[in-house]
Design a protein that fits this description.
The structure holds two protein chains of two kinds.
Chain A lengths: L3 E4 L2 E4 L5 E7 L5 E7 L5 E7 L6 E2 L10 E5 L2 E6 L8 E8 L8 E2 L3 E5 L1
Parallel strand pairs in A: 2-11
Antiparallel strand pairs in A: 1-3, 3-8, 4-5, 4-9, 5-6, 7-8, 9-10, 9-11
Chain B lengths: L2 E3 L4 E5 L4 E3 L2 E3 L4 E8 L5 E7 L5 E3 L5 E5 L4 E6 L8 E9 L9 E2 L3 E6 L1
Parallel strand pairs in B: 2-12
Antiparallel strand pairs in B: 1-4, 3-9, 5-6, 5-10, 7-8, 8-9, 10-11, 10-12
Classes of the chains: A mainly beta, B mainly beta.
């Protein structure tokens, strides 16, 4: 299994500011992902964080709004830029080693509130 | 198209009774099926998965799930529910014919409430 930590665990931010969320995995993984989740609802994939190259974004998400870094095989960051109240959500980091049968593990999440 | 359905938004069970959380799926190729649990204010925890082999899969916390290919289902079960099992449960599927980083397709989630 993989143990994933995220920082911060929660934050309250002002409209128009940016927040960077950090994700650390305790072992090297090939795939890292960022999800968004409204409380009590299902997960929406924002992007796949690719090591050494630009992230792959899902429909409805763009790099200018959600820039992602992945400098190595254990670490990634997601920035939520120019925030608005609609960005209030739980942001989850996830990782998987490589194979299509491998289990995907999740961090504890970052609860973001934008005022 | 790939999809996962969890037909029940909420399931209520009395403590000590058996519980079932339903999941059905639709994929083009062979399904890889997963169950996760999310406790309040926590991330998702992996419970169990079906890849191949025995249709009955055993996982964490006494949970098990049965893969039924003809009914395209993967229902989560536990023989005797605990109050501490109360949480949000997600079913997810990966389609081995779809080459898009083998993304997981998620169900909407089922809230399980175990009453003492």
């Amino acid at each position: 299994s993989a143990v994933i930590s995220q920082k911060p665990s929660r934050d309250i931010c002002q409209r128009g500011t940016s927040l960077t969320i950090q994700c650390q995995v305790d072992s090297q993984v090939t795939m890292m992902f960022w999800y968004r989740q409204q409380p009590g609802q299902s997960l929406t994939l924002i992007a796949t964080a690719n090591q050494g190259s630009e992230a792959t974004y899902e429909s409805g998400f763009v790099i200018d709004k959600f820039p992602i870094s992945r400098p190595n095989l254990t670490f990634s960051t997601l920035t939520v830029s120019n925030m608005s109240p609609e960005d209030s959500s739980i942001y989850l980091c996830s990782a998987r080693r490589q194979g299509r049968t491998d289990t995907q593990y999740f961090g504890p999440g970052t609860r973001l509130t934008v005022l | 198209a790939q999809s996962v359905a969890q037909p029940e938004d909420q399931v209520n069970v009395a403590e000590g009774n058996p519980l079932t959380v339903k999941c059905t799926y639709s994929v083009s190729g062979n399904p890889y099926l997963f169950w996760y649990v999310q406790y309040p204010n926590r991330g998702l925890q992996f419970l169990l998965k079906y890849i191949t082999g025995d249709n009955l899969v055993k996982g964490s916390y006494g949970f098990e799930a049965e893969f039924n290919k003809s009914q395209t289902s993967f229902h989560l079960k536990k023989p005797s529910a605990l109050v501490s099992d109360s949480a949000l449960y997600f079913c997810a599927v990966r389609d081995d014919w779809v080459d898009s980083n083998y993304q997981l397709i998620w169900g909407a989630g089922t809230k399980l409430i175990i009453k003492p």
